[in-house]
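User: I'm writing a short report section on ligand binding and want a predicted complex to refer to. Could you take this sequence and zinc ion and write out the structure as tokens? A short remark afterwards would be nice.
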Amino acid sequence: MKLVEPIIAFQSELQQIRRDLHAHPELCYEEVRTSDVVAAKLTEWGIPVVRGLGLTGVVGIIQNGTSGRAIGLRADMDALPMQEINTFAHASKHEGKMHACGHDGHTSMLLGAAHHLAQHRDFDGTVYLIFQPAEEGGAGARRMIEDGLFERFPMEAVYGMHNWPGMPAGAFGVCEGPMMASSNEFHVTIRGKGAHAAQPHKGIDPIMVAVQIAQAWQTIITRNKSPLDTAVLSITQIHAGSATNVIPDDAKMVGTVRTFTTEVLDLVEQRMRVLAENIAAGFDAEVDFAFKRNYPPLVNHAKETRFAVDVMKAVAGADKVDDQVEPTMGAEDFAFFLQEKPGCYIFLGNGDGDHRDGGHGLGPCVLHNGSYDFNDNLLPIGASFWVRLAETALPLAR
Ligand SMILES: [Zn+2]
Ligand SMILES: [Zn+2]
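Assistant: Sure. The structure tokens for the complex follow:
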């Protein structure tokens, strides 16, 4: 590890910030205290801030030298609506809310980088520090874009980072192209005609229609898309009926579709609709088909990924960098930024949970688990990576 020395000295303050944020988690677009903390720290360190993009978002601006060039570094700030099981001192004080995805750590690492960049200014250009609200389902990234993020703060590239449990602590992972999936949901209602279960011929059974549609949809994955393309179609709820002797009027099906490309997503959605409508018609039933696209696929740009890999190797050593990390079917709204600007998103290993203080829950230290905790040993590593990335992207003329 070749960490930035002054950041190592700053680690205990970063840990205090991180644990304070962990103890006070806030949900999508409610990050009022969190953004106050972020803005106060940046201001204290002499960094101008612009607030209000994406409601609770904060942009810090560190400018140096004469170059008009600029990059953006992004951290997400929001927590999850779930109960923390941990009982250590910095466990959540907010009932039913928890930093179980480590966004408290992401925010703290970017603050650590901000502190160093503002003090040392060893770069020529502008570094925009993007503290984003509402990653967990609220599309805070899109909201910041709609509020003019890239017009008000023109940047040539944007980078994001997520801690990744299971990967060795402090190891980096990234890949060119799709690294996380598009996330989409469907809500389908099949309208039949209720009847006595002993007289099925007098009704139209929506349950039989739902079963046929559910089976047929799986052939989209195996018969319609290319075997080389990736897609998941999971029906996660089927609801119908209320009695053993009643055929209900309707049946509902709900679930998720994940793909790595918009083309495959277009195909899956179109085939789902055609099969649902035509199978229902074949049974004289009707169907309401609603399909909602949430987050697009997260696609890393080649040049910026190769650049980030070089910086990772300089910070962590080549043996700690996997530049062909396995993509995940999870989703991430940083994808919206990468639709607008070149850049890349990387994983930073959070380890296997050994770092947790006494009093942690019995569950595994994985994302979105009540026993999770961000690994504070990553604070100087992630902050050093951000600093070296900025300094290398925007080099001083020597
Ligand atoms: Zn999450
Ligand atoms: Zn997350």
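A remark for your report: The CA atoms of residues 342 and 384 lie 22 Å apart. The radius of gyration is 24 Å.
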